[in-house]
From TrEMBL:
Bilayer topology term: Multi-pass membrane protein
Natural source organism: Pedobacter heparinus (strain ATCC 13125 / DSM 2366 / CIP 104194 / JCM 7457 / NBRC 12017 / NCIMB 9290 / NRRL B-14731 / HIM 762-3)
One Gene Ontology MF term: transmembrane transporter activity
Compartments reported by the entry: Cell inner membrane
Entry annotated with the keyword Cell membrane: yes
Protein's name in the database: Glucose/galactose transporter
PANTHER family, per the entry: L-FUCOSE-PROTON SYMPORTER, PROTEIN TSGA
Length: 468
């Protein structure tokens, strides 16, 4: 346990960890920039280009399985080496994955790029396992949810900025005369390597409290006796898969003549809006689920938070107000969705999933700017899905909670498989009609929300850090 006799300030350690969460989100979202770049560079089909997500998120699944089996046979590795060492190891593995982009670019080999992404994903898996619970330890227990919330907000900030900065570096700054070359990825990922190493050094030098879990690891798979967990595993699978599918295809989708016909350097800004929507929704969700605020205060705080985050995003993207003003309409629908959900996690999840089903269907049957805005606005309603699905799934698991949590993390595999499925349909049906794949994913999430609203009632939810 943490020694609370020492009055230690955790401001610097927490600031270091929020930097880690930011880079975590940033690098993950860089995949959405890499996909159209590598697709054109190597003349790939959509299915082949989705191997980027398959290797990256597949590493989450394989890494989680290895960790689960190791914990089952020999005990929790993080508990043996410590959270700090676990994070350091994860950072160094992630740095190695970024550095391997250099030889991949030198030899211009797609297979090497995929290998680098797999190793990068393994590093992030370890960070996922170590960093999330550790953030909750940096201070008083009653403030744990707030700290995870703030750290996750920085993760969302990373996913919002990545398309703008990463897209500029790869599509413009390091592009050779506007040409698509493998070398455009060299310097950006060498910079990312240096950042991860720098964060690792800072983390190593900072004194952090030690923590050992006293929780007993249950043998077998007793957690699967709970129906909400079994259904929730599929919920996480389809949520991560659907979210990654849409993010992966937005740049290519907006380039279609019947949609917007815009270049990668412009569409990257709309991709940032998609991920920025999740950041807006997470801030609103944190306020909506706060049981200590009265109705009027809650509405006021939500409106102020929505306006503040929208202004932040608008300052990040290279678009004027007229180009993004339509997004405000969907932000209004998002606010309405929270009010309909009435701070009940299952009901809010059901409402948001159904809205996303409608938005994706509208994207499929329409064209032009209308289709662009309906698909981009899905991000607003993705916001609370990870936290609500996770909370509902582990509700009532008791001694099986840790085991159930590890199974839910494995379900991030959806981010590896569903983009491949959509990629195959994009090759045969075209990108436009291939969006029925994430629509089916959101339909299942709506079913899960409905099931939990009937079986579990008004379970209290927290905005949990993590996700993909």
């Amino acid at each position: 346990m943490i020694d609370q006799t020492e009055k230690t300030s955790y401001t610097i350690p927490f600031a270091t960890l929020t930097t880690l969460f930011f880079m975590w989100g940033f690098i993950t979202c860089m995949n959405d920039v890499l996909i159209p770049h590598l697709k054109e560079l190597f003349s790939l089909t959509y299915l082949q280009s989705m191997l980027v997500q398959f290797c990256f998120f597949g590493a989450y699944f394989i890494g989680s399985v290895i960790y689960f089996v190791t914990s089952y046979l020999w005990g929790d590795p993080i508990n043996k080496i410590g959270y700090k060492n676990g994070m350091l190891l994860g950072l160094l593995i992630a740095a190695l994955g970024c550095f391997l982009f250099y030889p991949a670019a030198v030899f211009s080999a797609y297979g090497l790029f995929l290998s680098a992404l797999f190793i990068l994903g393994l590093g992030f898996t370890l960070l996922q396992i170590a960093a999330n619970p550790y953030v909750s330890l940096l201070g008083k227990p009653e403030g744990a949810s707030s700290r995870l919330n703030l750290a996750q907000a920085f993760n969302s900030l990373g996913t919002t900025i990545a398309p703008v900065i990463g897209g500029f570096l790869i599509f413009e700054f390091f592009a050779e005369g506007g040409k698509i070359t493998a070398k455009a990825t060299e310097m950006p990922y060498i910079i990312f390597t240096a950042v991860f190493v720098l964060i690792a050094i800072c983390l190593y030098l900072i004194k952090l409290p030690e923590f050992k879990s006293e929780e007993h690891t249950e043998k077998g798979l007793g957690a699967l006796q709970f129906p909400q967990l079994k259904l929730g595993i599929l919920g996480i699978f389809f949520y991560v898969g659907a979210e990654v599918c849409i993010g992966s295809f937005i740049i290519n989708f907006l380039a279609l003549p019947e949609i917007m016909g815009i270049s990668e350097s412009v569409s990257k800004n709309y991709l940032a809006l998609y991920w920025g929507g999740s950041m807006i929704g997470r801030f609103l969700g944190a306020i909506s689920l706060n049981q200590n605020l009265s109705g009027i205060k809650k509405v006021g705080f939500m409106l102020v938070a929505a306006a503040a985050v929208f202004l932040l995003i608008s300052s990040i993207v290279d678009l004027n107000f007229a180009q993004i003003s339509t997004f405000l309409i969907f932000m209004g629908i998002n606010l309405l969705g929270f009010f309909i959900g009435k701070a009940a996690p299952a009901r809010t999840l059901l409402v948001f999933a159904l809205i996303n089903v409608v938005l994706v269907i509208l994207t499929i049957v329409n064209a032009g700017s209308f289709a662009m805005w309906t698909i981009i606005s899905v991000g607003l309603f993705n916001s609370i899905m990870w936290s609500n699905i996770f909370t509902l799934s582990i509700h009532g698991l008791g001694k099986y909670t840790s085991q159930g949590s590890s199974l839910l993390v494995m379900a991030i595999l959806g981010g590896a498989l569903l983009p491949l499925v959509q990629g195959a349909f994009a090759d045969s049906l075209g990108i436009h009609h291939s969006f029925f794949v994430p629509a089916l994913g959101y339909l299942y999430i709506a079913f899960f929300g409905f099931y939990c609203s009937r079986k579990l009632g008004n379970v209290k939810a927290e905005i949990i850090g993590g996700g993909h």
